[in-house]
Amino acid sequence: MKLYHTETQEDYNALMAFVEKKGYEWNTKEKPTEYNCWNIFKKETVIVIEYDINLGFASKEYCERVYSDTPIKKYKVKQDEVAKWFDDAAGNILKYVSRYEHKNRIEDLKEAQFYLNDLINWMESD
């Protein structure tokens, strides 16, 4: 098991993109980038990575208490990853909105909404 502390929304977004590429998913079978749990604990968010492909999350305080033998690593995003995430988010918003009538309809609009909400949350957190 690995524990990663994400102090900012940017750190969280970068970690989710990284673990998604590795094949991890939430216990609900959602992709890591499809669910934003950072808003629950904010700067106290810890992502729990199981040895299989499952992800979980908890507060830093909880993890320090329950997983006292497991070190909590601070995950910090690299600045070029932030710029790339903005490009990807904007591109995904446009992609899902422009194709919704011809492809997955409401699912595509929800995907666009996810990326738009994530972008808004990040901008409001400054």
From TrEMBL:
This is Hypothetical phage-related protein. InterPro entries: SaV-like. Pfam families: DUF3310. It comes from the Bacteria.
